């Protein structure tokens, strides 16, 4: 081999060694530091699965410029008497929430619904799905570049599920506060409200308060209020004929007795669902409540 051939081979060996070293370092860099150098763009993840059932999905709305330190997340849980509804309910309020809380990420979840015909997905299926959804959000915190600070919100049955998780499973997720609109809070008393609540809760909970008292106790947020419960804000109309305002009165009494920071707003003359103007005020009040905590 001539000296020229040797130098040529040596040069190629040096080149390829350098090339693979650069590739290897770049690969290590992207694995060890998943965060980009510049601000992140807004992102939407639709029907993100958090379980194996087709109902166990969520929509995720990530804001531009989000960071691990400064982007808390609000998880919204839809209503529908635990038998109906979908995560699309959040879309009615999305713009207002994003304007009121511009540094927040938002998640809207579906959960398995009770089926009267097949008698499947009775409680605590919905409670367990909220737990699984919260855990999924936490598992993706780094990938989504969001904080671990979680705020729970929901309307009607969704408000019930938000309150139940916040008080009963506060250790699952770094729950900062909870907000609810016209929520069921004490299912034993709600059972006797009318024929609809009697038949619905008897099926959902597998019996009456007399035949299955533990199911009613375990499913009632008021039973898990303590002095360490998270700050709470909730709203209820005086003309609600679906979930009586007495349900929120009971919650207010428990929170007062436990010394919990809360805000209870009674909406005069409105029922199970508010006017657009009232919803705008409610979301503004929620944002002010949250900002006062931070």
Automatic annotation (TrEMBL):
Location of the BD-FAE-like domain: 58-255
Hydrolase found in the keyword field: yes
Gene Ontology molecular-function annotations: hydrolase activity
Record keywords: Hydrolase
InterPro entries linked: AB_hydrolase_fold, BD-FAE-like_dom, GDXG_lipolytic_enzyme
Classification via SUPFAM superfamilies: alpha/beta-Hydrolases (SSF53474)
Pfam families xref list: BD-FAE (PF20434)
Protein name per its UniProtKB record: Alpha/beta hydrolase
Organism annotation: Algoriphagus formosus
Lineage start: Bacteria, Pseudomonadati, Bacteroidota, Cytophagia, Cytophagales
């Amino acid at each position: 081999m001539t000296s020229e051939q040797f130098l040529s081979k040596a040069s190629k060996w040096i080149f390829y060694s350098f090339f693979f070293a650069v590739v290897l370092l770049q690969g290590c860099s992207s694995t060890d530091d998943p965060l980009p150098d510049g601000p992140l763009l807004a992102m939407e993840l639709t029907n993100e699965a958090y379980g194996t059932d087709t109902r166990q999905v969520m929509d995720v709305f990530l804001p531009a410029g989000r960071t691990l330190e400064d982007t808390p997340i609000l998880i919204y849980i839809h209503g529908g008497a635990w038998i109906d509804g979908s995560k699309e309910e959040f879309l009615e309020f999305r713009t207002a929430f994003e304007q009121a809380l511009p540094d927040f990420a938002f998640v809207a979840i579906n959960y398995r619904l009770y089926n009267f015909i097949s008698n499947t997905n009775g409680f605590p299926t919905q409670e367990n799905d909220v737990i699984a959804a919260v855990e999924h959000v936490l598992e993706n915190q780094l990938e989504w570049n969001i904080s671990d600070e979680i705020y729970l919100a929901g309307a009607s049955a969704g408000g019930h599920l938000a309150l139940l998780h916040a008080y009963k499973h506060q250790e699952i997720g770094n729950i900062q506060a909870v907000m609810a609109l016209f929520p069921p809070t004490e299912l034993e008393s709600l059972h006797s409200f009318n024929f609809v609540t009697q038949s619905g809760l008897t099926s959902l909970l597998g019996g009456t308060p007399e035949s299955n008292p533990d199911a009613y106790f375990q499913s009632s947020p008021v039973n898990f209020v303590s002095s360490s419960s998270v700050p709470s804000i909730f709203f209820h109309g005086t003309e609600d004929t679906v979930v009586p305002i007495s349900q929120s009165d009971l919650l207010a009494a428990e929170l007062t007795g436990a010394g919990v920071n809360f805000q209870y707003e009674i909406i005069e003359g409105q029922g199970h669902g508010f006017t657009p103007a009232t919803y705008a005020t409610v979301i503004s009040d929620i944002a002010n409540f949250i900002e006062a905590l931070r």
